[in-house]
Every structure is written in C-alpha cells, then in structure tokens.
Amino acid sequence: MRKHILILSIFLMSFTALGQELNCDVQINTDQIQASDKSVFETMQKAIFEFMNNRKWTNYSYGVEERIDCTILITFSNWDGGDKFRASINLVLKRPIYNSSYNSTVLNYIDREFQIDYAMFQSLDFNPNVFSSNL
Q1: What radius of gyration, in Å, describes the C-alpha atoms of the chain?
Q2: The pTM is what?
Q3: Which end of the chain is more exposed for a tag (fewer CB within 10 A), N or C?
C-alpha cells in the first residue's frame, strides 16, 4: 500500500511541475465600483490567478526558484452590471538573478484604459494564433 501511495505522490508531483513558469499574484481593487454583489470580481480574480499560474507557457522546465514573479493589479473604475468592465492594470514581472537570492524587475507596465468583457465563470483560453478574448 505504501508503495502505491509513494508512486502516486511522485507521479502527481511530476505532473504539477510540468507547467508553472510563473509565480503570479493577482489583486483586484473594486473600491470605485458601487455594486451590491461583487462576486463576479472574486470569480475573475480566481480565474486569472489559475490561468496565469497553471498554464505551461514555454517548452522549458523551470525549478521553483527559477519562476518569474508576476504581480497583476487591476483597479476597476466602471462596470455596466453585465460583462463590460473598465479598469487600469499594473503588470510587474521580476526574474531571479542567477546564483543569488535577488530579483530584477523585467517589466513594469501600466495601462490606464484597460477594457475587458468577462462573464462570470467564463473559462480563460489562450491560443497564440486566434484572438478569442481581450482578457
């Protein structure tokens, strides 16, 4: 029985290590939105977090210490109550410096006119050859 658990554990650990080139933190600010039910924002935050962290973006294998730290801050300014949102987004990428415990900022990008369409529980898909969503 222990042998089966050990084999299953090794298999699951190797499977989860295939992707995850990013260590992404997603933060959503809805202070400017006057709505009673903000659950769509919580769902969106979770969907973006899982999409960024669980997708394999390259064909290379990276160790945990080699992951690119990513911070996404989305500050919403307008919501039509449906699936149209206006916001600003701040994207910061930091990469580890070889043989050190330091990180170097690779990208710090702010877009003040970030407009997206998102329906609650919408799956986020990525295809480099097809535009499917502005999110």
Answers
A1: 18
A2: 0.76
A3: N
CB atoms within 10 A of CB 49: 16
**CA 73, CA 4: separation in Å to the nearest integer?**
43
Alpha carbon separation from 31 to 28, 34, 68, 87 (Å, rounded):
9, 8, 29, 11
- The answer to whether 89 and 110 are in contact (CB under 8 A) is yes
- pLDDT tens sequence across 11-56: 344 333 444 688 999 999 999 998 878 899 999 999 999 999 888 8
Q: Amino acid identity of 51?
A: F
For residue 21, the model assigns a pLDDT of 85
| φ and ψ of 131, to 5 deg | -85, 120
CA distances from 122 to 4, 92, 119 (A): 37, 25, 5
Calpha distance 55→66 (Å, rounded): 16
Distance CA 4, CA 37 (A): 46
